[in-house]
Automatic annotation (TrEMBL):
Name the UniProt record assigns to this protein: Heptaprenyl diphosphate synthase
Needed co-factor(s): Mg(2+)
Keyword terms: Magnesium, Metal-binding, Transferase
InterPro entries recorded: Isoprenoid_synthase_dom_sf (IPR008949), Polyprenyl_synt (IPR000092), Polyprenyl_synt_CS (IPR033749)
GO-annotated biological processes: isoprenoid biosynthetic process
Domain of life from the UniProt record: Bacteria
MF-aspect GO terms: metal ion binding; prenyltransferase activity
Length: 321
């Protein structure tokens, strides 16, 4: 699903899809079918696009190399989605049957692992040892973020700081890695590279908060996911955390803390989220991270990539999927 009306983005989107299909071609039919489902299901390709934009601030802009590295980043993301769906027992992914639903959990584990192996094939070909170590550290932190999320399922009384740490690890670091890699392979070093890294990190934080808002406000036809799916699976996100931070609701739901929520309790929480002011508060927090993004953008030189970044951030606030 195309995120923005931009010729460069559309061109990158098309090339990435084609390249991902080619480099993941396997003798095993279910691998090809799973990849085809993920590609045809859409996916915004926001991380690879961020990589391309970051590279535009350097002196060594190599489109072919960036397509390969962008494919690697997207494959890493796709692998995490396949594994997420196994953990969450999710039936849908991007509006289609998830790999674990369609092929079985054991097969889906191997599909995700296959995609990871292809990711590292690409990175080993194009990155030096220091960057590979950085990438591996980020992957480890991503896994730790997922583990923390799993450990705290149905824990209704977690703090906002805990939430920030979790989404930083499981979502934002991959955005940061994308902007870092784009800058690095285009020859950027030092403070400018650090700015690109932090820019990607703040974009990733904003992206996840918007996703959490869409979990309550979105249209299932647009998001490709069941509304309030996170809550139903025991994943407590920002709107619910803010709700439970209010004495009235904390007292109401304290008895359910760390317990699997039945449908009636889930529905009550959804109603309270929508009828209280926590969605508005969550959006205000989103705007704080957007302002942080803008702060780092202001420190970058003016060029076409910067204009596209600004457009991307403007759309981030109002995206519906």
């Amino acid at each position: 699903m195309l995120l923005i009306e931009d010729k460069l983005y559309q061109k990158i989107y098309t090339k990435l899809n084609k390249n991902i299909i080619e480099i993941t071609n396997s003798k095993r039919t279910i691998v090809n079918e799973a990849v085809k489902d993920l590609v045809e299901g859409g996916g915004k390709k926001l991380r690879p696009f961020l990589m391309f934009l970051a590279a535009s601030f350097g002196d060594d802009y190599d489109k072919d190399k960036l397509i390969q590295l962008g494919s690697g980043i997207e494959l890493l993301h796709m692998a995490s989605l396949v594994h997420d769906d196994i953990i969450d027992d999710a039936d849908l992914r991007r509006g289609k049957e998830s790999a674990q639903k369609k092929f079985g959990k054991k097969e889906a584990v191997f599909i995700g692992d296959f995609l990871l192996s292809k990711t590292f094939d690409i990175f080993f070909d194009y990155l030096d040892i220091d960057v590979l170590k950085k990438m591996n550290k980020h992957l480890r932190l991503l896994c730790e973020g997922e583990i923390e999320q799993s450990e705290k399922r149905y824990e209704l009384q977690i703090g906002v700081r805990d939430y920030y740490r979790r989404i930083r690890h499981k979502t934002a670091l991959l955005f940061a890695l994308s902007s870092y890699l784009g800058g690095y392979v285009s020859g950027i070093r030092g403070k400018k590279l650090n700015i690109l890294y932090k820019l990607g990190l703040e974009i990733g934080m904003a992206f996840q908060i918007q996703d959490d808002l869409l979990d309550f406000e979105g249209d299932e036809n647009n998001t490709g996911k069941v509304l309030a799916r996170d809550l139903k699976e025991g994943i407590v996100t920002l709107p619910v955390i803010l709700l439970m931070g209010k004495n009235e609701y904390n007292d109401k739901y304290q008895i359910y803390n760390k317990n699997v929520l039945d449908e009636s309790v889930v529905n009550d929480i959804i109603t309270d989220v929508k009828e209280s002011d926590v969605l508005k508060e969550s959006r205000e927090i989103l705007l704080v991270f957007i302002r942080r993004v803008e702060k780092y953008m202001d420190r970058l030189p003016n060029n076409r990539a910067k204009k596209k970044l600004k457009k991307l951030i403007e759309l981030q606030v109002d995206r519906k999927f």
